[in-house]
Amino acid sequence: MPAELTFVSPNRARPPRHLADLSPQDRQAAVAELGEKPFRAKQLAQHYFGHLESDTAAMTDLPAASRERLGEALLPRLLTVVRHVTCDGGMTRKTLWRAFDGVMFESVLMRYPDRVTLCVSSQAGCGMNCPFCATGQNGLTRNLSTGEIVDQIVSVARDLERGEVAGGPGRIGNIVFMGMGEPLANYRRVFDAVRRITDPVPGGLGLSQRGVTISTVGLVPAMHKLAAERTQVRLAVSLHAPDDELRDELVPVNNRWPVAEVLDAAWHYADVTGRRVSIEYALIRDINDQAWRADMLGELLAGQLTHVNLIPLNPTPGSKWTASRPEDEREFVRRLQAHGVSVTIRDTRGQEIDGACGQLAAAEK
Ligand code: SAH
After folding, report:
1. pTM, whole model, 2 decimals?
2. Ligand 1 centroid, distance to 71 Cα (angstroms)
3. What is the CA radius of gyration of the chain?
4. Which tens digit of pLDDT belongs to each residue from 155-191?
5. Is residue 357 flagged as an active site residue?
6. Which atom of ligand 1 is least distant from the CA of 126?
7. Which of 6, 33, 238, 310 is deepest in the core (most CB within 10 A)?
């Protein structure tokens, strides 16, 4: 056993190293360490990111003797499908994954007439403890590795490309970090994953930065760090209340970084990237959906480069809360618009398969 592993308990072992964890330079070094020619790194990456192929047996341009060695060292199986569940006429598909250590997490594929979006997990569980969110109820199990984040995408993209998902062959255009976990609490691995997602093939998958959304509870220092990366990634902030008193309860990390600081960081992000920041607001009946709170939110957001996504609350097991009445939802929208704030209501894809916002909880059920 390598020395570094003798000091950690077995269930804290790290996921195996994978090609997707490594920058192009590090891939070359890793390949060279195996006694292979450095250009093999690029060939492997072309297969994995370009052709969505993980099986080295299919990589016939590699010498037979090298395939197994390279495969074992750089393309270990990271994720096993426990099951797929579909709804919305097959246009929404949730996948439950099991990692090398038995840990489970989910992704959700959503097909729309004009685009395909994959919602990915960045952590198994979540430490943010928001009381209305299913994932938050069991705490954080562990961070996902960059490879585990990227492989959710590569696996689903492969199924799509090969026509194994209802609706025929397709391509993923958008990635949203809105599955399990707080992406900015796993900053380095998530940001490396963003690089792998957006670097051109064979560096990565070659998706547009503008098609990637990172959603956060509002970890202010990490929001600033992300702004300093100078990418075109979209930032979404889960606000859910315009006032600290209520937000302290709905998003407990607000006790550390209150509304004003979170919004300052959001406007700074909009400033340096030129991109509209999404404000996520789950409408919860009689909790945060009052007309006066809509006005208060409208005043905070007026004149900023922002867009509000109202999410009808998806009730989670054991929760005392439910979605707003239609008339309250309408009034909330009207008042935001009266402040000149752009607003849409998020669809509730995946509700009946517990695959909608905030319902992801990878229990065997
Ligand atoms: N931790 C990140 C990303 C994960 S959740 C974040 O909080 O932003 C993605 C979105 O779903 C967040 O806006 C979250 O607040 C919201 N959400 C969580 N539980 C929900 C529920 N039960 N109904 C509706 N939206 C929910």
Report:
1. 0.95
2. 37
3. 21
4. 999 999 999 999 999 999 999 999 999 999 999 999 9
5. yes
6. 1
7. 238
